[in-house]
Amino acid sequence: MTFPLNKVLTAVCVSTLLLTSCAKSPLGRNQLKLYSSDQLANMGQQTFDGMKSEQKVSQTPVTNQFVSCVADAITKHVPQSVFSGEWELVVFDEPQVNAFALPGGKIGVYTGLLEVAENQDQLAAVIGHEIGHVIAEHGNERMSSSTLIGIGMEATNQLLQANQIANNNMIMAAIGMGVQVGVQLPFSRTHETEADLIGLQLMAKSGFNPQQSVSLWENMDKASGDNRQAEILSTHPAPQSRIEKLGENMAPALAMYRQTSERPQCKKS
């Protein structure tokens, strides 16, 4: 039996990619990552710039200072290999109960989240979780999976070169912006658990009480019962499931919290 040359070449290319692009997540899980850090940072930058021009940015000093205080305390503990520059934070004056972090050192927090996150520790739980996705390169993993499924590496490269990231819903969804652009790309439970556990460690190292992560998700659960569902819940597992997982991993997080001398004093109002 003979096979068409193009199919043989495709199989060889895919096999080569699989063999040369395997990596490990921070928690030791096997990952497939086909994109470079520079490519993902470029996507993050373009997406973030588009959002800043299209959405209302908060001009309230006390709100910006509070969120910046929490974010600054956490980003100090992000490995330089993940991002070595200065993180850019924007507070969006929108009612969404949501936040995100993007490759290339970008963080967005919606003012609606501050109605659910009651204090600095609860906000730290969310920001730590979102940065956890970046540390674990979940965006790269989802992009790589989508590439193998069908969009094609060359097509993606052309989009990057044409500076069209802000208009490509699939790519934005893959790097974590699915909710904002109306594309429901549910995160896997594996990704969510990893981000929760990385975030738990981050907030503890930064001097935020990790036990407040449980309180945060209890608040999220209550918010999901209101007429305005928390946006962050639309693509995430049920709060009770993650509360149980956080509880299982609370002891080492508390040990980190007790060992650090850092105790941020971020005032919400």
Describe the overall structure:
There is one protein chain. The chain is built from eleven helices and five strands, in the order αββααβββαααααααα. It has 269 residues and is mainly α. A three-stranded mixed beta sheet has the order 3-5-4, sandwiched between helices. A hairpin with a 5-residue loop joins strand 1 and strand 2. Helix 3 packs across helix 4 and helix 5 runs antiparallel to helix 7. The protein starts with a helix and ends in a 10-residue tail after the last helix.
Would you identify the regions where 5 or more consecutive residues have pLDDT less than 50?
1-20, 177-187
Order of helices and strands: HEEHHEEEHHHHHHHH
What distance separates the N and C termini? 73 Å
Query: Approximately what portion of the residues adopt beta-strand conformation?
Result: 5-15%
State the strand order across the main sheet.
Answer: 3-5-4
Rounded Rg: 19 Å
For the largest beta-sheet, the strand count, sense and barrel status come to:
3 strands, mixed
- State the share of residues found in helices, binned by percent: 40-55%
Shape: globular
Count of helical stretches? 11
Oligomer: single chain
